[in-house]
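Milestone M4 deliverable, item 7.
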Amino acid sequence: MAGALARFEGPLGTTATDGVRQKFDLLYFAQVFGQSCRILVSVLGITIVGLSVTGVLVGMRKRSARLLGAASRRRRVAAMPGGVSAEWSSRIDDRKVLPLAGR
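Output delivered:
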């Protein structure tokens, strides 16, 4: 029997792979611990969806605040004595460099 393929087969023709797959199916469909496990899995799923939605909303709020802040900054700089050149205006839009007074 040296080098022969070892294979387990149950009395009804099931293999070890079938048994493992059945256990994973029970876990996947939340049938291991009964109704309480199903409720827990459902609550966890709703929680994940809720966190995703709130994350998107917070991101949108931060983005709109950033865009409003850039528009406000452009208005303040445009109101400076002497105005702003096109070069400085593009830098202000990119939020890289703000012009220094007196230079």
